[in-house]
Amino acid sequence: MAKLIIDDSSYEIPDGAQIAEICENSGIPFSCNSGVCGTCQVVVLEGAGNLNDLSEEELDLGMDHKTRLSCRCRIKNGTVRIKY
User: Fold this and answer.
1) Which of helix, strand or coil describes residue 77?
2) What is the Cα–Cα distance from 43 to 63, expressed in whole angstroms?
3) Which residues contact 82 (CB under 8 A, 6 or more apart)?
4) Rounded to whole angstroms, how far apart are CA atoms 14 and 77?
5) pLDDT at 55 over 90
6) 49 neighbors 75 (Cβ within 8 angstroms)
7) Is a pLDDT exceeding 90 seen at residue 33?
C-alpha cells in the first residue's frame, strides 16, 4: 500500500493507484480531467520519485517533478506528500 498525504490528512491507497479521486474529495478543484486545463495542479513536497513519470500533458505545460497534475499522477509505491 502507498500513502498519500494532503495537508494534514493521510490516505492509504493501492500501489499504482491514481490520486485524482482522493485529491478531488479533499477539495482540490478539477475541470477537464484530461491533463489540459491545469486546474488540478499540485506541489509535490515529498516523494516525487514515488510517482509515475511526467505525462505528455504535464510536459506540454512545462511541469517538472515538483509540480504535477493530480489527474495524471499515480503513486507507484511509498509515501507522497502534496499541497494544492
Assistant:
1) coil
2) 10
3) 4, 5, 6, 19, 23, 42, 43, 44, 45, 68, 70
4) 8
5) yes
6) no
7) no
Structural domains in the chain plus CATH codes: 2-83 (3.10.20.30)
Q: Rounded to the nearest 5°, which phi and psi values hold at 60?
A: -60, -30
Q: Residue 5: pLDDT band by 50, 70, 90 thresholds? A: very high
Distance of CA 69 to the CA centre of its chain: 6
Q: What is the DSSP letter of 61?
A: T
pLDDT of residue 36: 87
Per-residue model confidence as pLDDT tens digits over 58-80: 999 999 999 999 999 999 999 99
Cα(37)–Cα(19) distance, integer angstroms: 17
| DSSP per residue, 20-56 | HHHHHHTT---SSSSSSS-TTEEEEEE-GGGBPPPPH
